[in-house]
Design brief:
Blueprint (H helix, E strand, L loop, with lengths): L4 E4 L21 E5 L2 H5 L5 H20 L3 E5 L10 H11 L4 E5 L4 H7 L2 H5 L3 E4 L8 H8 L7 H12 L40 H13 L16 H14 L1 H4 L19 H6 L4 H13 L5 H25 L18 H4 L5 H13 L4 H15 L3 H11 L5 H12 L16 H7 L20 H12 L1 H4 L6 H9 L2 H19 L27
Parallel strand pairs: 1-2, 1-4, 2-3, 4-5
Helix pairs in contact: 2-8, 7-13, 12-13, 13-18, 15-16, 16-20, 17-18, 20-23
The structure holds flavin-adenine dinucleotide, ligand DLZ and iron/sulfur cluster.
Length: about 525
């Protein structure tokens, strides 16, 4: 028999088949799962995100016990809790005289870098194993990316389809004769389909206890904790997955980019928190989606679109993160330095699109992709908000947010701060895009058709000013040829008026007076402490 091994399982590693548990000796080894202050506060996560993870961690520990593992579960309010993962590993390794520590590699660079120093500090071997829950390993991604100047998801995705034989026909060609049906997937909703009602979740005593804890300890954090409607076990998460396949997947493709006031979820799966913490398996999700098409229960444009998000985007984003970190986070290709406006926390702004998205984010710890990219992301891009501030916001407010997935999406896709390593052009858009894809503009105080004047939609002047300000950096991008041609055609007087209007909008962001909408100080995130930005209204 080998000596005792301490197996650390992190809060986003709640999968019974995870590599760190695979060769576990049930009678000999101990699994450690720990709620720690350092992980809950390195950014001040949304209350709902912490409650979801702590409850899922507690349920998972119980499942492991039922399966015969010896489990030490450290609660946040345990008297001896040292407050950090290293502290807990050190304490328990000493107590049980562990010969070695085994852990699956963490999803965040900051923790991996820390963990790489643990063996020396603990004077014991620390085996950091590969996280093979992903469909593309670091080595495979590095091989794919080698010698490519630009990394483009579409080519990566085709290779993943072939390699994993997903949605491929017998001749090795993509089903339906095309790799991508995205051009069919841009419909705005405008009352076309009834949005299905999501299943109710039943809250058990474990979740109730965690909610009480989070309310008490993290009262200062952003977000509403109730109503709480997250799954906290793999069985419940699978129930939500089945619901999605049956009721929403058939429409997922058509309305993937739509936004509608009062309908935060539309036909999206809301499965990212479960995928990212290990309650659901991405392979299984792709296979199940494919079966829905093969059995004639969902159209190809929907199923291909859904699979592309998981097999394509999710794996690609992770690949870019591990390929490029830590330098990636430090790039700032558009030299954006403005502080994050306060309304990202308060939601108090007359821009209805932003108020809606921030309000839904506060309530649900969720916003769907186009809301993240084309409303809050687009505004931050156009206004030149410092990438690190925007990233800290996204990392804190969404229940599915971990650095490996949040950072490339925000830094690369939304802010173009990597200068185009990940996306071929910035996703910059005027108010016209938001008007086309949503019903936000009708009740808005601003007029989406105006660029100048006191009631003009701020996105419009900011859009043209963004192009103008960044002409040296972006003007030669062939994918921006059309907007730059339109800008060049504008009379100089109009360009000057737009530039003045944009300066006025940006100055109102910088105004430290919060006016009639003081945002509660307790919502201030740790990383942004001291930020004192104004509402734009
Ligand atoms: P659906 O629309 O139902 O899509 C299905 C699944 O595809 C998702 O569950 C998710 O796992 C995957 N997926 C889709 N798009 C992406 C993508 N771009 N990157 C990675 N996976 C994707 N996703 C996160 O999981 N965590 C984040 O912290 C995160 N931050 C983001 C920040 C910004 C600025 C942007 C633009 C996007 C971000 N995304 C993030 C990607 C995407 O917005 C979410 O994955 C999606 O909104 C989750 O909701 P859903 O499960 O309903 O997704
Ligand atoms: C996000 C999170 C939170 C809020 N709390 C914990 C925790 O108390 N214990 C833990 O093991 N993990 C937690 N996590 C998830 C970690 O932050 C995550 O494992 C790392 O960021 C690596 O992805
Ligand atoms: Fe947003 Fe402009 Fe539309 Fe108002 S008018 S909702 S600010 S895009």
């Amino acid at each position: 028999m080998t000596g005792a091994t301490l197996r650390l399982v992190l809060g986003d590693q709640l999968s019974p088949t995870i590599s760190s548990l695979r060769d576990s000796h049930l009678g000999n080894d101990t699994v450690l799962i720990a709620e720690v202050m350092s992980e809950a506060t390195y950014v001040r996560h949304h209350k709902k995100k912490i409650a979801f993870l702590f409850s899922a961690m507690r349920h998972f520990a119980e499942e492991l016990r039922q399966a015969g593992h010896r489990v030490i579960y450290v609660r946040l309010d345990d008297a001896d809790n040292t407050g950090s993962l290293y502290g807990e590993v050190s304490r328990h390794a000493d107590m049980m005289r562990a010969d070695r520590i085994v852990v699956t590699e963490p999803g965040e660079w900051r923790l991996k870098a820390d963990m790489e120093g643990w063996a020396v500090r603990l004077a014991r071997p620390v085996d950091i194993l590969e996280d093979d829950r992903f469909l593309c390993s670091h080595v495979e991604f590095r091989r794919w990316a080698a010698n490519r100047k630009e990394l483009r998801m579409e080519f990566f995705y085709r290779e993943m389809r072939r390699r994993h034989d997903i949605l491929m026909d017998a001749a090795g060609k993509p089903e339906g004769g095309r790799w991508n049906f995205d051009s069919d997937n841009r419909r705005s909703l405008r009352g076309h389909e009834a949005i299905p009602r999501r299943p109710d979740m039943i809250m058990d005593a474990v979740t109730r206890q965690v909610i009480d804890l989070v309310e008490r300890v993290f009262a200062q954090h952003f977000g509403d904790i109730e109503p709480f409607d997250f799954a906290v076990t793999s069985i419940e998460a699978e129930r939500l997955m089945e619901w999605f396949f049956r009721h929403a997947l058939p429409y997922f493709g058509d309305y993937q980019d739509a936004m509608q006031q009062g309908a935060p979820f539309l036909f999206h799966s809301l499965l990212s928190p479960y995928l990212n913490c290990g309650l659901l398996d991405p392979r299984e999700l792709c296979r199940r989606a494919e079966t829905e098409w093969r059995k004639g229960r969902a159209p190809l444009n929907a199923v291909e679109g859904f699979i592309r998000q998981i097999l394509g985007w999710r794996e690609f984003i992770r690949g870019v993160y591990w390929l490029e970190m830590p330098g990636y986070a430090r790039s700032n290709a558009l030299a954006a330095t403005r502080p994050l406006p306060w309304f990202y926390w308060s939601g108090q702004t007359a821009m209805n699109c932003i108020a809606q998205v921030v309000g839904e984010t506060r309530r649900n710890a969720y916003a769907h992709h186009i809301q993240r990219l084309m409303v809050t992301g687009n505004f931050a891009l156009l206004a030149g908000i410092a990438p690190a501030e925007v990233e800290a916001w996204y990392l804190a407010v969404y229940a599915d947010a971990y650095d490996w997935v949040e950072l490339p999406n925000t830094h690369g896709m939304a802010l173009f701060a990597d200068g185009g390593r990940l996306a071929s052009k910035p996703y910059a858009a005027s108010g016209k895009y938001i008007q086309r894809m949503s019903d936000y503009c009708r009740p808005c105080r601003y007029d989406v058709k105006q660029t100048l004047g006191s009631t003009a939609c701020p996105f419009n002047a900011l859009y043209w000013d963004f192009l103008s300000r960044n002409a040296d950096r972006l003007g030669r991008n062939p994918r921006l040829a059309m907007p730059y041609r339109n800008l060049a055609r504008m009379p100089a007087s109009q360009r000057q008026a737009i530039s003045l209007k944009a300066a006025e909008i940006l100055a109102s962001l910088d105004d430290s007076d919060r006016g009639s909408h003081p945002a509660p100080a307790e919502q201030m995130p740790l990383l942004l402490a001291g930020n004192d930005q104004a509402d734009m209204t």
